[in-house]
Design goal:
alpha/beta, 12-stranded mixed beta sheet, 14 helices, 12 strands, SBP, ABC transporter substrate-binding protein, signal
């Protein structure tokens, strides 16, 4: 089992992931810099980049602290230290808590976190980068291997959250064939998922569904029930979210809890889990029996980008840059995409390993990185909508 460290959030988290105001875009609001039409600051690229010189400078700094929402960061840290002889500590921390801590450290000029991996691109692009708390640094020698749209901010990888089931309890395949079935009485209380109010990627999924997923949802409804969807809500996405929330999903605070509820050896009740593909490691590590819902209409789950950023006031800036380069290589990112994912480096071969997820491009609803700041601005609206309907 992987050891993980949890960071206890400081009181009054900075309007974090679930609390970005719907008025974002006004002065002083999260997302204001981009909402006002100002582009992100240019990514930093060292014109005279020299890898050997960077390694030497990083070794003089002596250590490195990196926060990540995945416990895989501990394996990355072990590999980084083994390669460079620089003591790296990797700490598992939920993205909202990481953003809050880095914001406070920056304001106090007492920075301990040198770099971080961010799943919440909205907060990163709409708040942390515009406020100068973190910056994007692109390794010059790898720049041509990174698509231009993935350089600012720097996408280290893409991960996915999928609907999963217990293969032992349902040997014929996933008992859910259509996403609208999750809103039916037969599945009331049988979907296990992270609480969207504490999971920025799920809130982003909701807002992105409304932005570019309505047609797929309408077609899925028509295919399931043989008639067009009728709704008084603003869109098919909001109708699905309302019905899902009202169908009493079981909410947890971790994907590990979801995986246990769905795929543990002692499970006797058929449940569907909406969980990170990273938890498919439990099949091998713990003897779980779980697979993604292959063939589910209109999609099996959603993908989302994960970025790497460097603290602007880091006391170990060269070590932080070296880490950013390391995670953009197969040697570094393989620890993050072992159970599936796509590297931000186009030369690194994809690893789509979870059972049931054979086609990353075709089976998933894909987050549009260009809409992440809009997600942040609309987050309060969808959060309130979920609260009203989940009782």
């Amino acid at each position: 089992m992987r050891r993980t460290k949890k960071i206890v959030p400081v009181a009054a988290l900075l309007a974090l992931a679930a609390c970005a105001p719907s008025t974002a875009g006004q002065a002083g609001q999260p997302g204001g810099a981009q909402a006002a039409g100002k582009p992100l600051p240019a990514a930093s690229v060292d014109a005279d980049f020299d890898l050997d010189a960077l390694v030497a400078a990083a070794k003089k700094e002596g250590s490195l602290l990196v926060y990540d929402s995945s416990g895989d960061i501990e394996e990355v840290a072990t590999a980084f230290t083994a390669k460079y002889g620089i003591a790296m500590e990797g700490v598992k921390s939920d993205t909202p808590q990481t953003a809050e801590k880095m914001t406070r450290e920056h304001a106090a000029d007492n920075v301990t976190i040198d770099a971080a991996m961010y799943e919440d691109g909205g907060v990163l692009m709409g708040q942390l980068i515009p406020q100068g708390i973190v910056q994007t640094w692109v390794p010059a020698d790898l720049q041509d291997q990174i698509l231009p749209e993935d350089r600012n901010p720097l996408r280290a990888l893409s991960k996915a959250t999928v609907f999963a089931y217990n293969t032992k309890l349902s040997p014929g395949g996933c008992p859910i064939k259509n996403i609208w079935e999750l809103t039916e009485p037969a599945w009331s209380g049988k979907l296990v998922m992270q609480d969207p109010l504490g999971k920025p990627t799920v809130l982003s999924f909701f807002t992105q569904l409304d932005a570019h997923g309505n047609q797929a949802l309408e077609q899925a409804y028509q295919a399931k029930y043989g008639e067009p969807l009728k709704t008084e809500e603003k869109s098919a996405a909001y109708e699905w979210i309302k019905r899902l929330a009202a169908n009493k999903p079981v909410l947890t605070g971790s994907d590990e809890d979801i995986s246990g509820a769905v795929g543990a050896p002692g499970a006797t009740d058929k449940k569907i889990g909406f969980m990170s593909i990273s938890k498919f490691r439990n099949n091998e590590d713990k003897g779980y029996t779980q697979a993604a819902c292959a063939g589910m209409t209109p999609f099996t789950g959603f993908s989302y980008p994960k970025y790497v950023a460097v603290a602007t006031k880091s006391k170990h800036p060269n070590a932080a840059k070296l880490y950013a380069r390391f995670i953009m290589t197969e040697e570094g990112v393989k620890h993050e995409i072992g159970e599936g994912g796509i590297s931000g480096n186009s030369t690194v071969q994809p690893r789509v390993t979870p059972a049931g997820l054979a086609d990353w491009k075709g089976q998933l609803f894909h987050t549009d990185p260009k809409a992440l700041v809009s997600d942040l601005q609309n987050r309060q609206v969808v959060s309130d909508f979920w609260r009203v309907n989940h009782r």
